[in-house]
Every structure is written in C-alpha cells, then in structure tokens.
Write a structure and sequence with these properties.
Layout: H1 10-13, H2 26-49, H3 60-79, H4 84-87, E1 91-96, E2 102-106, H5 110-119, H6 122-139, H7 141-169
Helix pairs in contact: 2-5, 2-6, 3-6, 3-7, 6-7
Length: about 170
C-alpha cells in the first residue's frame, strides 16, 4: 500500500521537482493553502450557524461585480505604485510595468519569498479577493456590494483611460 509522504519526507518527495535553489517555498505554500481553506470553511460554518442562507445560485450581476472588483483590487495590491510600500519588505523592484504599475520579483527565502510571490501575483491574490468579496456578500451584502462597485467602477475607468491614451497616440484625442 502506498503511503502519502509526510511533511518530514517532503524534501525527499519533491527532490526531483526542481533544484532546491529554484524550488518554490512549498512549506509556506502549503500553509497558505491551509489558511485559505480554514478561513473559507470557518466563514461558511459561521454563516450556517447564524442561519445565513447561501444563494441557490449566484446572480449574473453579483458574478460580474465580484469579478471586476476582484480583478481591480488584486492588481491594485500586486502592481500599483502606491501600494509598493506594502510589498517592499518581500519584493525587489524590477522596473516600470503597465500604466501606474511596477514590476517586482519576490526576494528572500521561505516565508518571505512566499509572501512576496503572493503579493506580486494578481492571479494568486485574485482567489483571496474573490473569496473575501463572496463571503462579504453572505455577511454584509450592502456594504460589500458598495465597496465592490467602487473597484468595479475603477476597473471601467482604467479601461477608458487606456483607450483614451491609445486614441491620443493615434491622433484621435
């Protein structure tokens, strides 16, 4: 019978995955996954204990609202110049990114590197932000929808800013 590797066996179990110097920080990644799963499970359990009903299905409006708001908030945290002080202890500046954005790489090892990688990845942060907005809709729908609408409107505004700049560059503005 095959036995799944324990945490003590983890280095041997992943030895063939990548050179240890290039390998992602698996321990902190596993911790992040555990924290995420625990927080979402705890929120759902609390909602059930408080008698809060989860929607039978998510409306298209909430799906669009949470999706666009999460896109913007995750990019804001992971790429925006203004939020760089939050990332600085865990990242290294690589240079300019997209409009009002920076490109950074994670630095350090272990937990510092894992936090850096989470903070510079809008896709990685997106899961956490989507979960937060979704749980917010269960516990405080009015406030959550209002806050999400701010970020959704900012997403729309950003697209107009980019379109306007492109039009100006083509002599149309």
């Amino acid at each position: 019978m095959a036995v799944s590797p324990s945490l003590e066996d983890a280095p041997a179990a992943v030895a063939g995955y990548a050179d240890p110097q290039k390998r992602p920080p698996f321990g902190p990644y596993l911790a992040f996954m555990s924290i995420f799963g625990t927080l979402v499970s705890a929120a759902l359990l609390l909602a059930r204990r408080q008698g809060r009903e989860l929607p039978e299905r998510v409306s298209a409006a909430d799906l669009a609202l949470v999706g666009t708001a999460s896109h913007k908030l995750s990019r804001l945290v992971s790429k925006d110049k203004v939020t760089s002080p939050l990332r600085a202890p865990f990242t290294e500046l690589e240079g300019k990114g997209g409009p009002a954005e920076l490109e950074e790489s994670s630095r350090g090892t272990g937990l510092q590197k894992a936090i850096g990688e989470l903070l510079i990845c809008p896709y990685c942060l997106g899961l956490w932000v989507v979960a937060a907005f979704s749980i917010g809709i269960v516990f405080a729908p009015r406030v959550t929808r209002f806050v999400a609408s701010l970020f959704s409107a900012l997403t729309i505004s950003d697209f107009f800013q980019i379109a306007y700049k492109a039009a100006e560059e083509k002599g149309l503005g």
